[in-house]
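Final report, section 2: Outcomes. Of the targets proposed, Uma2 family endonuclease is the one most frequently requested by collaborating groups, and we therefore present its record in full.
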Amino acid sequence: MLANAEINYQTPQEYLDWEALQEFRHEYLDGQILAMTGGTIAHNLIGLNLATLLKSHLRGTGCRVFMADVKVKVALASSFHYPDVMVSCDDRDQEAVQFIQFPCFIAEVLSPSAEAYDRGEKFRRYRQLPSLMEYLLVDSNKMAVDLFSRNSQGRWELISYEEGDLLSLETINWECSLASLYEDVIGGKK
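The predicted structure is given below as tokens.
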């Protein structure tokens, strides 16, 4: 979730230096810095469930799972974002310290205040990551998930999932029930 712009234009390096000293997270969009707002308990639980399930599945594969406090750099869009969950299997991200650059999967847990941004401008920027193959949007108010996958022609295709469905991520060869994703949240039981 984003709040209003806080300070004047900064270069990417000025942002990184400044952000490292901040108590709260900020995203960077074309020189503007935007404060991130807090999330709900449902938002947190869904993100934690997803990251835990992915971490368990990817253990020992060389892929790494990251949560909300790790930035992704979208160089072509001149932006830095904090995805709720992301996965990188790229060797170039193994030694990363400040940010990830080559994720294959990104997930955002939707909130009413940021849903339009996550579906619109943020996704437009994420699509500029050549490594990104799947983008997951998880509704925090009901059991509903939208998965955008890049096909072999480079176009993005949408698959929507609802309660009772089995979510499938081809990029990392993983499946889970929506009930597992929403465990302890909205009717989610294991």
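The CA atoms of residues 75 and 129 lie 8 Å apart.
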